Amino acid sequence: MRLASALVIVATLVGSAHADGDGLTDMLGPREIALGEALRGGATDASTIAMNPADLPLSRDLVFEGGYGYRLSDDASLVGVSACDTTGNLPGCFYYDYAGANPELDGASTHTATHVGGVDLGYAITPHVYVGSGVKYYHYDDGVMGQPSSSGFTWDFGATLRLTQMVNLGVVGQNLLGATSEDFPRTVGGGLYVHPVPSLALSFDTRWKLDGMAQGARYGGGAEYFLGSSDGQSGFPIRLGGLHDNGLGTTYLSAGLGYVSMQYGIDIGARHAIDGSDETLILASLRFFGKRFPGPTVDPTPQ
Fold first, then answer.
1. Rounded CA gap, 111 and 49, in Å?
2. What is the rounded CA–CA span in Å between residue 43 and residue 31?
């Protein structure tokens, strides 16, 4: 999740039911949420932080991003800021995320806090093969007296295969090395990203949680349609998605809307659980662009 350093409007939504904090989802932004968490093969800029660091070379720009999110079920505030520079030979992002929640435990209100900071780097080995890795430090305090906090460094690793200019495959492992906890478990995931026409993108992802109480698969998909201006300098991305977690037994529907110009971008995304939970989440982010260049291209046929 990325927190807007300027004005962000957050709507109050209705919902109930406790939602535990999760370092895997609390760091997601409005674009990832709106598309059913299906961007492991086509993330750009700050979206690569929670999705796949190997996607960093997919764009060539300098972006400062921030966002805010609110989850009513546990009164959680999700905050994040990032700076990504993908214009050089070694694209990278620096970021900080905070998640503060107030869940109820045995009828009493508690406060949990998670701080995460890190750096991701990507590299294009060939026009068709990208790799990436990231290291982050997290500190989690569950707010229960007598319970120790957890903290440590963890490493993520990913790879992206650009089959054609229109089709990408991405794979990523999160928290594979270093400290792990219930809130930062090891996972592996993959995704297919398809760009059949310039204005439309389709994505399908899955993620397997290898540690923790709610092990299982989390899979989803989404579609993004870009309604652009006549000069191609600005436009409105419209996003729809769905997600199912068979470990939690929960299905979500999601949607989002944005505006992007050459100087800045605004994104709003929301999702609601339609079974297995009453979780409702809304996120918003603001991006400021520095220098921007056209993204890399590949031959129509892989070599």
1. 26
2. 9
| Cβ neighbours for 235, distance < 8 A, ≥ 6 positions apart | 226, 227, 228, 229, 259, 260
Identity of residue 257: L
Task: Name the domain count of the chain.
Answer: 1
177 lies in a domain?
yes
> Does any domain span residue 299?
no
CATH number of the domain bearing residue 52: 2.40.160.60
Neighbours of 103 (CB within 10 A): 19
Question: Is residue 158 within 8 Å of residue 55, measured between CB atoms?
Answer: yes
Provide the residue-wise pLDDT of the chain in tens; the chain has 303 residues: 443 333 333 333 333 333 445 777 889 999 999 999 999 999 999 999 999 999 999 999 999 999 999 998 888 999 999 999 999 999 999 999 999 988 776 666 788 899 999 999 999 999 999 999 999 999 998 766 556 688 999 999 999 999 999 999 999 999 999 987 888 889 999 999 999 999 999 999 999 988 866 678 999 999 999 999 877 789 999 999 999 999 889 999 999 999 999 999 999 999 999 998 889 999 999 999 999 998 898 864 444
Who contacts 296 (Cβ-Cβ below 8 Å, separation ≥6)? 57, 58, 60, 124, 127
301 occurs within a structural domain: no
Q: How far is CA 62 from CA 116, 135, 157, 235, in A?
A: 22, 21, 22, 19
